[in-house]
Structures are given as structure tokens and as C-alpha cells.
């Protein structure tokens, strides 16, 4: 093969490789945006799971944060997995809500996105009380759907010592031009059901 054809072939291969590299990177950033959106759509905006993290943010060790984890697990499933996890209460009176969701489903969601164990329990000292009967949480599913949903658009990504830092803007699901906040999130590599993903470490949303 003549040198000029080799040169053309090299350029074609290099261009193809660069294109694939950009595409792969873009796909990963898109998946990161979906990952962070799982928290913001559930109304979870400020927390830090690291012991030496921001003292002004909620920490996993705080009893109140256990309530937030339970709320996240319930809201996440109401929004994303209603057909598979939300059932109709069989009790005719349904004193504590018309629907139920298993504690197993709630704990699995917390493990998937936080890589944390969860002690299923009732929530009493909260604006959103929840009854846990030892197996299921009793809720009114429609009450757990937020009126306004904010998604995350990841714009910058950096990695250091196994921690991924993602930052960008939140936007209104119904109006992508409505961007009322910026965010910074940190996460660690995590495996769930045999797939590589991330587990959140912190999230800090700065409302404009």
C-alpha cells in the first residue's frame, strides 16, 4: 500500500477512534445526569454521607436522615416503578393509606443508589408520616408525586482517588429553560445487579 493511502487510512482510523471516544464520554455524562436526577426528582437536594463532609448538610448518622432515606425509597418507586412495587391495600378500611410498598423494595432502592443498609421503620416526627407494619409501608401513592420535578444536567466531571465529582444545572422537567439551581454531587463506583453504576456520597444544590 502506497504511503499516501496509508496516511489517509491512519486519518480515517484516528477520526473514527476520536468519534467513538467522544460518543462514549457523552453517553457516560448522560447516564450521570440520569443518576443525579433520581435524587432531585424525589426532592432530595442536600446531604453528605462522608464523616468529614460538610457539617451544614444532613448526614447518614442523623436519625432524621433515616427518614429521608425511607422517603427517597418510597418516592423513587412511586415515580419510577409503580406497576412493580406499588400495590393496593387489601384492608377494607386502609387506615394508613390506600396503597402499600414492601420494605424490601424501599431498602433495595436505598442500597442501589446510596450503597447503605436501611432499617425499615415507621416515620412519625415528620410532615409526611408513614406507617410500617413490619413488612409493608402504607401510603397514598398520588401524594408522593411531586408537583414540580427537577432533573439534573451534568456539565462537568472530575475524578480523584476513586471519587467522581459531577456538577451542572437543575432544570424543570416541563420547561428545560427553567433552570433555578446549580448542583455539585460526589459519588463512588458501585455495582448493582451485575452492572457498573455509582453510589451517591453527597449532593449540594445551590438555588439561584
Describe this structure in words.
With 208 residues, this protein is an alpha+beta fold. Helix content is 35%, strand content 29%. It is built from four helices and nine strands; from the N terminus they run H-E-H-H-E-E-H-E-E-E-E-E-E. It has helices spanning 3-40, 63-80, 82-85, 103-114, and strands at 46-48, 87-88, 99-102, 131-132, 136-139, 150-160, 163-172, 181-192, 195-207. A five-stranded antiparallel beta sheet has the order 1-9-8-7-6. Strands 2-3-5-4 form a four-stranded antiparallel beta sheet. Strand 8 (181-192) and strand 9 form a beta hairpin. Helix 2 (63-80) crosses helix 4 (103-114). It is globular, with a radius of gyration of 21 Å. The N and C termini lie far apart (61 Å). 25% of the residues are buried. Mean pLDDT is 86; it is low at 5-11 and 13-24.
Amino acid at each position: 500500500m502506497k504511503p499516501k493511502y496509508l496516511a489517509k487510512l491512519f486519518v480515517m482510523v484516528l477520526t473514527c477512534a476520536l468519534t467513538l471516544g467522544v460518543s462514549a464520554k457523552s453517553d457516560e455524562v448522560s447516564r450521570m445526569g440520569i443518576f443525579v436526577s433520581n435524587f432531585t426528582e424525589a426532592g432530595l437536594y442536600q446531604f453528605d454521607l462522608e464523616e468529614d463532609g460538610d457539617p451544614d448538610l444532613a448526614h447518614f448518622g442523623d436519625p432524621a436522615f433515616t427518614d429521608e432515606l425511607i422517603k427517597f425509597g418510597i418516592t423513587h418507586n412511586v415515580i419510577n416503578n409503580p406497576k412493580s412495587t406499588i400495590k393496593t391495600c387489601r384492608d377494607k378500611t386502609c387506615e394508613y393509606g390506600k396503597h402499600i410498598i414492601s420494605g424490601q423494595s424501599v431498602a433495595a432502592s436505598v442500597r442501589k443508589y446510596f450503597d447503605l443498609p436501611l432499617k425499615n421503620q415507621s416515620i412519625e416526627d415528620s410532615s409526611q408520616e408513614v406507617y410500617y407494619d413490619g413488612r409493608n409501608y402504607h401510603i397514598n401513592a398520588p401524594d408522593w408525586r411531586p408537583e414540580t420535578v427537577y432533573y439534573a444536567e451534568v456539565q462537568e466531571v472530575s475524578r480523584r482517588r476513586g471519587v467522581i465529582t459531577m456538577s451542572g444545572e437543575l432544570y424543570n422537567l416541563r420547561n428545560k429553560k427553567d433552570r433555578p439551581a446549580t448542583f455539585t454531587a460526589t459519588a463512588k463506583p458501585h455495582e448493582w445487579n451485575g452492572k457498573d453504576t455509582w453510589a451517591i456520597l453527597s449532593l449540594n444544590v445551590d438555588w439561584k
